[in-house]
Amino acid sequence: MNTATNAAAVRTATASSNTLLGKLRALALHALNLHLQNCAVIAEAHRRPQ
């Protein structure tokens, strides 16, 4: 996962979080980040031999 891109997205989201759309964008980015982390965990679990 590209943490530099995620950090830039978080900075952008926090800069514009004073509006409703900014808050929704920040929430969507956070949900996407959690989803990608979850996918990485599942992929790692499937990659390892049983």
How do the helices and strands line up, and which of them pair or pack?
Layout: H1 3-15, H2 20-47
Helix pairs in contact: 1-2
Account of the 3D structure:
There is one protein chain. This protein is mainly alpha-helical and 50 residues long. It has one domain (3-47). It has helices spanning 3-15, 20-47. Helix 1 runs antiparallel to helix 2. The two termini are 25 Å apart.
The overall strand count is 0
- List the total number of helices: 2
Largest sheet: none
First and last CA, distance: 25 Å
Number of domains: 1
Task: Report the oligomer.
Answer: single chain
Q: List low-confidence stretches.
A: none
What shape does the CA trace take? elongated
SSE-based structural type: mainly alpha
H and E string: HH
Helix content: over 70%
- On the 0-100 scale, what is the average pLDDT? 82
Provide the β-strand percentage band: under 5%
Evaluate the radius of gyration. Answer: 14 Å
List keywords for this structure.
single chain, 50 residues, mainly alpha, 2 helices, 0% strand, elongated
Summarize the structure.
The protein is mainly α and 50 residues long.
